[in-house]
Amino acid sequence: MPATPGPIDEVRDLDRHRLAGVLPGWTTPKVIRGLVADWPMVGAARDSADAAVAHLKQYDHGTLPVTATTAPPAAKGRIFYNADMSGFNFRREQIALKVVLDTLLKYRSTPEPPTIYVASTTLDSFLPGFRQDNPLALGVDGPLASIWIGNRSRIAAHHDVPDNLACVAAGRRRVTLFPPDQIGNLYVGPLDFTPAGQAVSLVDFAEPDLDRFPRFARAMASAQVAELGPGDAVFIPSLWWHHMEGLDDFNVLVNYWWRPVPAWMDPPMNALMLSLLALRGLPPAQRRHWRALFDHYVFSADGEANAHIPDSKRGVLGPLDEGMAANVRSVLRRRMER
User: Fold this and answer.
1) How far is CA 245 from each of CA 44, 59, 92, 179, 229, rounded to the nearest angstrom?
2) What is the pLDDT of residues 26-39, one digit of tens each?
3) Which of 113, 123, 178, 323 has the highest CB neighbour number within 10 Å of its CB?
């Protein structure tokens, strides 16, 4: 059996008004108990699922359908591939949010309901006014606020490039985290054929097959886990793997994504995909040579790489800004078109 994960480091008695003073400096996972306990949404959810739905409906302008993911009862809440990975075990449809909310309430008393999941829906576009009535100042620039609504669900372990603060607004959630260096023990699936945009672990956390995935036991030895209730939040740093479970028949999560870098910087995944194209097929000795170059110019860059070059001649080795980024993209486009 896999090892029992350790707890995520907890922060207690942190008033949400003080979050902006500490959040930008965090680099490791944190559970913040009761961070948004005073939200009207959380108060409604603690009253009942019907009250939580009523709170959400008051912001729904009804002019934009949401994307609802549905899976049959046999999926047991797992949003995943089908048996042979030729497709997926769910379907998506555009539907009015009111209909989704009413359907979730209807299935609450059903022992084995279908999975219903509205994922990553932009708050300000679909529920204008929600953030004003349920505020949270993060102290970071330009966070993207999204809402996730559904019944019991299991979202395969994956990572995101932005930092992430996820706040439980209704129901209970179990979050299991893994450091980025556990990628080799999580048996990650394809990069370019994914259930929801990010590559996911192929391990079923409810029934891990250690004959097929033996290194998963090592991943669990490095894992951290927490169960969150309404009002609790978890900070998930960039590239930390996270497996998310909705534990109740009505769950709402509000999360905020941000990157502490200028907007003109490219997503790092672009570099990874281009590296797969350009480097992975090289002979082993040449890959080692390129690793040394990347380490020198990118991962261990401390000023020594360009100290001997006059400032005016450093080019891309000098300080990057929006103009230089545009020049680099122009060069890359010309090279890719050859």
Assistant:
1) 21, 26, 19, 18, 12
2) 999 999 999 999 99
3) 178
Chain region(s) in the chain for CATH 2.60.120.650: 6-258
* Pair type for strands 66-71 and 91-95: antiparallel
Collapsing DSSP to helix, strand or coil, 191 comes out as: coil
**C-alpha closest to that of 186 among 233, 227, 239, 226:** 239
Exposure class string for 271-299: b at 16+ Cβ within 10 A, else e: eeeeeeeeeeeeeeeeeeeeeeeeeeeee
Q: How many residues does the chain have?
A: 338
Order the strands of the 91-95 sheet from edge to edge: 10-11, 30-32, 233-236, 163-170, 251-258, 144-150, 115-122, 66-71, 91-95
pLDDT-based confidence at 249, cuts 50/70/90? very high
Over the stretch 111-152, which tens digit does the pLDDT of each residue have? 999 999 999 999 999 999 999 999 999 999 999 999 999 999
Give the span between the Cα atoms of 36 and 17, in whole angstroms: 10
* CA gap 69, 310 in Å, rounded: 56
What is d(CA 161, CA 25) in angstroms, rounded to the nearest whole number? Answer: 17
Cβ within 8 Å of residue 185, ≥6 positions away: 215, 216, 218, 219, 222
Candidates 11, 9, 2, 23; CA nearest to 226 is 9
Give the pLDDT of residue 331: 85
Q: What is the CATH architecture assignment of 6-258?
A: Sandwich (2.60)
- Segment 199-214 mean pLDDT: 97
* Per-residue model confidence (pLDDT) at position 1: 64
Contacts of 220 (CB under 8 A, 6+ apart): 2, 3, 4, 5
